[in-house]
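Need the bound structure for adenosine-5'-triphosphate, inputs here:
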Amino acid sequence: MKTSNIDITNLSVTFDTKYGKVQGVDDVSITFPKDVVTGIIGETGSGKSLLGMSILRLLSNEAIVTGQCFYNGQDHMKLSKAQIKKIRGSQIGFIPQNPDLSLNPILTIQRQLIESLLTHTNISKQEAKEKVRSYLKQFGFKDIDKIMKSYPFQLSGGMNQRILCIIGIICNPDFVIADEPTKGLDAKLRKIVYENLIKVKKNYTSSMIIITHDLYFAGKFCDEIVVMYKGQVVEMGYSKDVINNPRHPYTKGLIGSTIRKGMVPINPPDSKENTSKCKFYTRCNQRNTKCIDSTIEMKRIPGGKVRCCAYD
Ligand SMILES: Nc1ncnc2c1ncn2[C@@H]1O[C@H](COP(=O)(O)OP(=O)(O)OP(=O)(O)O)[C@@H](O)[C@H]1O
Ligand code: NI
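Answer from helper R.:
Posting the output first, comments after.
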């Protein structure tokens, strides 16, 4: 089947906690175009993982998810568990953030990799085994026989993260969503994962969503970048524009505090409760009275969109 864009409308994710309602994703409407690598950036807790995981309905039952997510003509929010399970891996591959929670501790690496191939493709067990070996090699593993027979606890965190990358792409999905695929890896292994993502983009699919804290990589690898803050998208655009010429005060701070020396770093969170319409108000160094009570929609700017009163 030819892949389509991923079209999300009015997506919200909330949790009822003992401290009250927590809104992890706040009414996000966004299209992730096919044949485009979109990066999602934003500080910890901004809703990146919740957004990425909602697309494949991977969130736990305590998450209250509303809104729509259309892909290949179907609203993922309306599919049965069996239907969405079929889409995972075969149509949309997911590379999760945390190997400890995502690999099965009682199955060998070979079982886990081969099983995901046999579930989603029609190849024989022998062919699956060969494919697994070749992917392990491509992802920088050396003693393939030993790795195949190992259990996740016998491998390092970095090795398990690479196994998750393989599971995410081995069935040649049309779309790939990767949630911090390099988390916890040292520079050398990060390079291997990045090289493999570049290979995936070149050889398999360039329809990708990459959630990352690595702004340098995002700028180099992604075609477009989406910036999230407190569950909302605050800026999106071509990656070169977002990285080199950020427009939202939050993006300016985020990039200024990491890769671009000389830009104004971001203000720390303010202890005062933020009651203004703009969620960034208390930290913003460009705020004005308009930001307090006018609803702030995403506005078109050259090469992208931004949610900020300064661009009215
Ligand atoms: N199970 C949960 N119960 C309550 N709140 C939750 C739950 N899961 C996530 N949240 C809240 O939702 C918000 C967004 O979480 P999310 O994991 O999407 O952030 P993130 O941008 O991926 O952060 P990170 O970069 O650290 O991975 C967080 O503020 C978090 O506190
Ligand atoms: Ni996350």
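Comments: The chain has a mean pLDDT of 90. The chain is about 35% helix and 25% strand.
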